[in-house]
Amino acid sequence: MIMGVVSDTHGNREGMLLLAERLKSMGIQTLLHLGDDYRDIGTLAQTGLEVLGVPGLYCPEYLDPTIPNRQIVELGGLKFLLSHTETRSSYDDPEDLDPEMACYAVDAVLFGHSHTPVVSERQGVIWINPGHLRDRTDRGSPPSFALLHISPTELKVQVYLLADGRSYLDKTFPIKFQE
Known about the structure:
Elements: E1 2-6, H1 13-25, E2 30-33, H2 40-45, E3 50-53, E4 71-75, E5 78-82, H3 99-102, E6 108-110, E7 118-122, E8 125-129, E9 144-150, E10 154-161, E11 167-174
């Protein structure tokens, strides 16, 4: 199973359409959106992708108690925490999952907010930030997205530059499925 991951699209319609085109040309149908801007999920869904997501800190939806700010989803036999931030925020509802605690119940934490791609492992949990999809280099990082390749034995994470589709980061982790 292969799925896309994106964060911090910030209304960049041209970037979202290019991303959708790249994903669909690779046969990818599922995209995880990690916030900012939550409404961009609709733009991406109109391209025919199945989009799951959470709002970013500065989205009005973050304060809407009917929309989860963080959620755990199971895809390809692995559990993923979707979060805009990698830690709690002062904007969080008291009921929101704490990424630093919820990580022990998942195989990977997917987060955004910093606009900087990260692929690392902390105490047996994989932490992934796909970067951002703004229309320019931001905070020292060019626009990027990630692909997650799930197999029975490993999770391969690749971060790609949006502009030319070139691989930017590439790491593979052996996995042990959660019981």
